[in-house]
Specification:
Number of helices: 9
CATH class of the largest domain: Alpha Beta
Distance between the termini: 8 Å
Strand order of the largest sheet: 1-15-17-18-13-12-16
CATH superfamily of the largest domain: DD-peptidase/beta-lactamase superfamily
Radius of gyration: 27 Å
Strand content: 25-35%
Shape: elongated
């Protein structure tokens, strides 16, 4: 039996549903915009197609170094030797000198802020012995994390036909860095870093705008075009954006700001139920108690376009009455949240308490009562 409830009867507060992707144009070749808290995709364009990530792949290099530090294999004050390969590496550089020893922390800032290819190679060679071996570790770890559309052949994003990431994988990786390594995430907000007397600014254009941006990384090669991974926080709500294939650094800055503004302006998050909250009660057939509470295990926060929240419909679906015995924690119902223009959410509801089977006399009286008067709840 399906039990339907109006919005006001449920919570007396505005609530929302994970949204389907709305139509919104972008000049990017590929794009994805995600609400960090709910995982709701607010916008996407060819987001699962593997493409050359350029320096956005340095996010994976950084993640590998963060993990190595967390596991105790490296420390921020460890001094690492600069090889000739690292020193000779072209492209964007931190400008380390061959034979010098550089701290892990300086090298990380060289990667994150300055996008230094040379710094990436020093770290890769230290962790795995060679950049090629490190690249294999990157690929293996990415696949373990669920990034199935990512393959790495180097630590820098240097052009290679087999070096690929999808925008969705990049967005996922950005989210993992924010959540897994809050102690290192602030590096991505640093606007400049000076090493060897050379001061370089962070290439992320959104950091210089008053829009809540606090990370992540830019990239460019002739093949990839101008790309951006960005995250911003406004009013305790975080969005993650990935764009690829833009024509210029200016277009990248404009499009990044425009799409983040769209995500914050068009959508909002709402808490529908809190962990352990009783959503409804169900009648029990031939039990020691006549009803059992239907409880949601985890807090349900959902995302919806601001102008669509009044279309919300909430249902509790279960077979009524539920036969005793009922075990506490047993899944006995489904919470269904839907609107006409969005994807529905289905979540299990569990029994909030155990309901033993009634004794013989109570079973008889309960069965007669149910047949004569029906369930105690309106259905």
């Amino acid at each position: 039996m399906r039990h339907l409830f109006s919005l006001l009867m449920l919570v007396l507060l505005p609530v929302a549903l994970s949204s389907g992707v709305l139509a919104f144009e972008t000049a990017a070749l590929q794009a994805i915009l995600i609400d960090s808290a709910t995982g709701t995709v607010l916008l996407e364009k060819d987001s699962d197609v593997p493409a050359p990530p350029a320096s956005l792949s340095k996010l994976m290099t950084s993640y590998m170094v963060f993990e190595e530090i967390k596991m105790g294999g490296l420390a921020l004050d460890d001094m690492l030797l600069v090889s000739e390969k690292a020193w000779r590496m072209g492209g964007s550089k931190m400008f380390v000198e061959v034979g010098d020893k550089v701290s892990v922390e300086d090298l990380l800032r060289g990667v994150v802020v300055q996008s230094g290819n040379d710094a990436c190679i020093v770290l890769a060679e230290t962790i795995a012995g060679s950049e090629a071996a490190f690249s294999d570790l990157m690929t293996d770890r990415a696949h373990e994390m669920g990034m199935s559309n990512s393959t790495f052949t180097n630590s820098t994003g240097w052009p290679d036909p087999e070096h690929r990431m999808s925008p969705r994988d990049i967005a996922f990786l950005t989210q993992r860095i924010v959540i897994d390594f809050p102690e290192f995430f602030p590096y991505f907000a640093e606007k400049e870093f000076t090493y060897n007397g050379i001061r370089q600014g962070n290439r992320n254009p959104l950091l210089y705008k008053n829009i809540g941006a606090d990370g992540m990384k830019t990239g460019y090669t002739k093949e990839s075009g101008y790309s951006l991974a960005a995250t911003a926080l406004r009013n305790d709500r975080r969005l993650i954006l990935v764009l690829t294939g833009l024509d210029s650094a200016r277009q990248r800055a404009i499009e990044g700001e425009r799409l983040l503004d769209y995500g914050f302006r068009k959508f909002n998050n709402y808490e529908l139920f809190t962990s352990g909250e009783t959503v409804e009660s169900a009648d029990v057939w031939l039990g020691d108690f006549s009803q059992v509470p239907l409880v949601i295990e985890d807090t349900l926060t959902v995302t919806l376009p601001r102008d669509s929240r009044d279309k919300l419909q909430v249902s509790v679906v279960f077979e009524s009455p539920i036969p005793a015995p009922v075990k506490a924690g047993e899944i006995i119902a489904t919470l269904l949240v839907e609107t006409p223009d969005t994807k529905s959410i289905e979540l299990p509801l569990i029994a909030g308490k155990a309901v033993p089977r009634a004794g013989p006399f109570r079973r008889i009286s309960g069965a007669l009562s149910y047949m004569l008067f029906g369930p105690s709840l309106e259905e």
